[in-house]
Design brief:
Layout lengths: L3 E5 L4 H17 L2 E8 L17 H25 L3 E7 L3 H11 L4 E5 L5 H7 L2 H8 L4 E4 L1
Parallel strand pairs: 1-2, 1-4, 2-3, 4-5
Helix pairs in contact: 1-2, 3-5
Length: 145
């Protein structure tokens, strides 16, 4: 069955359900898990009259802290269930690529993720990372609603 499950999270309630399901599955089959969160790069700040952009270090730090909280929660859930868990935070323009690259690099044999993390117009305009993973993955993908 499965030996290494990749769990993609974005901090949403749906992702929390996907984490619980993936950890329960991993426990039942004796698999380990890797929890991943990919965040978009924070764009630089431009000030009038400035000749170069300035990094927004506070927003970058907040994004890292949020990712750490989400990944720590996933790792704590896995630990409580007795499942080995590693965590990965990537900053990528295309989060789905980071998910797929991490799955391949870690020799995962299943990806578990929520059906979607955003709704409304933003989902229509930006597309769903879940749909992109489904479209490009060579691995099975378990999508949780």
């Amino acid at each position: 069955m499965f030996k290494h499950i990749l769990i993609a999270t974005d901090g949403s309630d749906r992702s929390d359900r996907a984490i619980r399901l993936a950890v329960d599955l991993a426990k039942s089959v004796g698999a380990k898990v890797t929890a991943i969160m990919t965040t978009w790069p924070v764009p630089p700040v431009y000030f009038e009259g400035a000749t170069i952009p300035i990094r927004n270090e506070e927003l970058e730090q907040n994004a890292r802290a949020f990712a750490k909280r989400c990944l720590d929660a996933a790792a704590a859930h896995a630990r409580a269930a007795g499942v080995v868990c590693e965590t990965v935070h990537l900053v990528k323009n295309n989060p789905y690529e980071g998910i797929l690259q991490t799955a391949e690099a870690n020799h995962c044999d299943l990806i578990v993720m929520a059906s979607h993390g955003r709704s409304g117009a933003s989902a229509l305009l930006l597309g769903s990372e879940t749909h992109k993973v489904l479209a490009h993955s060579k691995l099975p993908v378990l999508v949780c609603r």
